[in-house]
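Margin note: ligand = beta-D-galactopyranose.
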Amino acid sequence: MSFRATTYVEDVSPGRGALAPRARYASSDAKSLSLNGSWRFRLSPTADAEDDSFATEGYDPEGWASVTVPGHWVLQGDGAFGAPIYTNHLYPFPVDPPHVPTENPTGDHLRRFDLPGDWPADGGATIRFDGVESCARVWLNGTELGEFKGSRLPHEFAVGPLLRRAGNVLAVRVHQWSAGSYLEDQDQWWLPGIFRDVTLLHRPAGAVGDFFVHSGYDHGTGTGTLRVDSETGGRVTVPELGLDLATGEAVTVPVEPWTAETPRLYDGVLATAGERVPLRIGFRTVRLEDGLIKVNGRAVLFKGVNRHEWHPERGRALDPATMREDVLLMKRHNLNAVRTSHYPPHPDFLDLCDELGLWVIDECDLETHGFTEQGWRDNPVDDERWTPALLDRAARMVERDKNHPSVLFWSLGNEAGTGRGLTAMAEWIRGRDPDRLVHYEGDWNCRDTDVYARMYAFHDEVERIGRGLDGGTRRRRELPFIQCEYAHAMGNGPGGLAEYQELFERYERLQGGFVWEWIDHGIRHPELGHAYGGDFGEELHDGNFVCDGLLFPDRTPSPGLVEYKKVLEPVRFEGDGADGTVRVVNRYDFADLSGLALEWSYQVDGETVASGALSSPRPAPGDAADVKLPEPPAGAPGGEAQWTLRAVLAEDTAWAPKGHEVAWAQLPVTGRVRPAAATGATPALRDRVVRLGPGSFDARTGALLDIGGVPVNGLRLDVWRAPTDNDEGAEWQPDARYGKLWRELGLHRMRHRLDAVETDGGALTVRTRVAPAAREVGLGTVYRWTSDGERLRLTVSVTPEGDWTVPLPRLGVRFGLAEADTVRWFGGGPGEAYPDSRSASRLGHWRSTVDALQTPYVRPQENGARADVRWAELGGLRIEGDPEFWFGARRWTSEQLDAAGHATDLTPGDTVWVTLDHALHGLGSQSCGPGPLPRYILWASPAEFTFVFSTTR
Ligand code: GAL
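Resulting structure:
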């Protein structure tokens, strides 16, 4: 047996045989043939288990299975081809670079193809692989073409002389592990396979080779300067601008600039003797100037997100519709920027960013995070033997993507420590493309970067940075700041977005951030709903840390995304509803408000009584204009009144239809009318039951039995919630992790001791003490019931006893109803809200089902609260709150929710559990970031709150 065949797998070099990287483009006239589709497939457990005779001419793959390309074999074959592995930063193999385990799943792939009838006889051809994880060796018709690493980067091979009219066989051997795996330790599933397109490209004689479109914008003169450098020469035409020029020649003409807000593209053509290539030219200039990132002369604020490529069934093999959906969803949620964490995306994604308008940080496929476990010793990025591989990765990214106006930054990679290899990459990039900026987070001294980037800095530190009080090297002090990752969107959360945004807007140096991350990487699973780390029996894994996105795996926006949209609104309405004037603030960086229509409506007790259009002012970016509100509608009923103001798209755009809501606000006019007192009736005892108005109670325990014939089960004080991922916090967090503290204190197993049941005067009073076993702290809790005969009023008084050093998850009551389906309420909605994530909750009349109140976090946890509820109706009961309360209802208890690992562990019981909360603890984002800000921590303190119950039947 020979190990010859595997040496390249453990070789630190980037590979052998591939053509030099070049710009990615779709030819107008050269033929191409997609080799996507069904490929024959054979899986071996090791890199050299089978010889490579499968690549020789005439090999018969009899008995081989099939896989779809693009795809990952571990997500195909119903488990027959191994399984995905999820780790955050730990390498799932021993760290001994560049060596990889003997167990190295190796997929041999075969694809037969004939040339189409019209394939030209002359010229050459190449085969391009857009992405293969992690290492591939390639043969065509028995001749070896070479081998490569760099999973999310393109590799192209010249194949012209080897091609035949019919019966071509492309053979590709793919190894899951290689030296390249050490450079690809991103926090995601390890998913081997040919996961992006494979294409045969005709290269006519005199075809276009590599080219570089330079198209800067001078905001002083309003002109763009175009120069296209081309290794094969040619002419460039831009009909709309009347341009016809030679490559290498520069011309300056008046143009409309490209920005993410106004993504103006000009169509052009690059023509050589043999080929015509369409160009989409956007004129824009990005510069570091006065310590700020400026585009076309103006500082920009990034409202960004980190996007991994993800599809719940196909992994990182994304189809065009999914990519478009991502961009549309981003635009519709007021995002203006994306960091392609942590590798260059499928190239089509960048076309969409150009077309629809998003600022892009294009990140190289480089992460060596696992070396942090050994204090970064032997880190490949500081070992010059690896530098050629790093430079190859930088070049493959820059060359492929350099013609996209959307790309403002080249990012060297993610979490790779520091080292000479990174400096070499930065130097090469600056030499090749001096017109863009360089990003990298891992070096806080900013040696190689044009921006001080950090991840998960807490609010107070961000503020210090904003004020320039954070110190650091001279280089760093001169740089603007972005949070390339913040607001970890794992499970319920993140909390604290509005407070971050406020800082970004207040301090010039802070140029915004990118929420971590776009989508949960849950894998669709027949028994579990969506699988996460550990669900495939991995030896090492990081659980549901892979589900930390603003979208659920099926791309349904989570409440976190709805909140982020609200916080990012490019239009603000400020003012006092009673005063009759509203200030409209344009928070775009470039656009005026001409694309928007402004609308007003007037609500009384949540019902709209009048609405109309608001005269549209035209404040310039950064400016504001005052607009007069109409007179409040005459004859409107009395009650709680407010204005709702909305900015919607005035016309259809490329990313959303006319009428799409971009921003809104509510301005109160008159306050709430509080529920009337309910007293007068007196408790009466009969047959061991106390009757008080519509309520009946167990005379011995004081337990509520029913209200007007609606059975009510187990009404009592409730402080427990199924901890969220942000409550649990990450193990490495230095600060208090509330989920853990709550369990240690025993808040999930509170005992309710009955001290007294008293009927005196007009009230039934039940005195209790609620406390966990083994602890001396407790909550003295008094339930005081009164009635006016029709309605039943409960006042709960809570007095903490002992030394409470741990906050409460919630403070309210819960009870069970036998039947409830539809829920109506007047309060915040339509979606869930929590104290530090409630910007998107709008006051109105809402209706839902109990099932639809639930938010389907991949790992079940506390969810579904509605804020500011004045009254709610369900199951035949109407509940009014004084003050307003947080409402929730679910078909399982908090304890069942807590015990569930996946959505499919939750099965509805025969009771609907209702929670009426006086207060909730905030969410924070401690799963990777700060806990709730101090003002959102629910400390135990004396509290009193009231609910008034009546029946609706
Ligand atoms: C960052 C990292 C991301 C992800 C995130 C936590 O440190 O760059 O890839 O792991 O933390 O979800």
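Residues 88, 186-187, 342, 414-415, 455, 485, 488, 516, 545, 548, 928 surround beta-D-galactopyranose (CB under 6 Å).
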